[in-house]
Amino acid sequence: MKGVTNQYKPNRLLQSFLAAWTDTDLIMKCAVVAVFGLVCCLLGGISAHSIGMKHKQKAGVVLSPPLGNALHRQRVNELARAAQQLDKDTETRLLNLPKNHTDMTNLFVCCLHVNIIDFYLRNVLNTEEKYPHLTVVKQDLHRISTDLKEQGCAVTHVRNQQYVQKFKEEYIKLGTNGQRKAIGEVDILFEYLSRFCKEKKTQ
After folding, report:
1. Distances (CA, A) of 162 to 108, 120, 165
2. Tell me: the pLDDT tens digits for 26-45?
3. Torsions phi, psi for 62 (to 5 deg)
4. How much is the pTM?
C-alpha cells in the first residue's frame, strides 16, 4: 500500500500545478477584461465630452469657415504686415467702423464689409507687387464673400451706403498708394468680418 501511495504523489503534484496554472490564467484573463473595460469607459467619456464641446461651439459660430481658422488669419496678418512695412503714410486709415454701428444689426455691418471684400477682389488684390500669401488670401476672401451672400448678404442693398462710399473715395484719393494701404488693412477687414459675421447665439 505504501508503494501505491508513492505512485500517486507525482500525479497529485501535477494536478496541483495545473490547478494553480489555471487559476493564474483566469486571473490574467480577468485583469485583461478589466483593463479593456476601463479603456472603453475612458474612450466613451472622451467621445461624450467632444460631442458636448461641438454642441457648445455651435452658438455664435462664424458664417464662413476661413473666418474661424487660425491658419487663414495668420496668412492675412503676414500679408498685411508686409504691406504696412512699405507704407510710409501712418496717418491715413481706410477702414473705420461706422460711428453708429452699435445701432445696426451685426448682419448689416457684416454685409457692409462683404461689399468691401468685393471691392478688394476687383481692385486691390490684383496688384502685380509681390506679397506673401496674396493668391491664397484672395481665394479665402472669395470663399468668404460667397458664403456670406448665401447666408443672406444682399450687397446691392448696401453698395451706396455712406460707409462703403467713404472707403472707396478715400482709396481713390490716395492714388497709387491706395492699393498698398488697403492691403495693409486687410487684417482689419478680416477682424471686422470675424466679429460681425456670426450666427445669433441660441439659448
Report:
1. 13, 17, 5
2. 445 434 345 444 433 433 44
3. -65, 155
4. 0.68
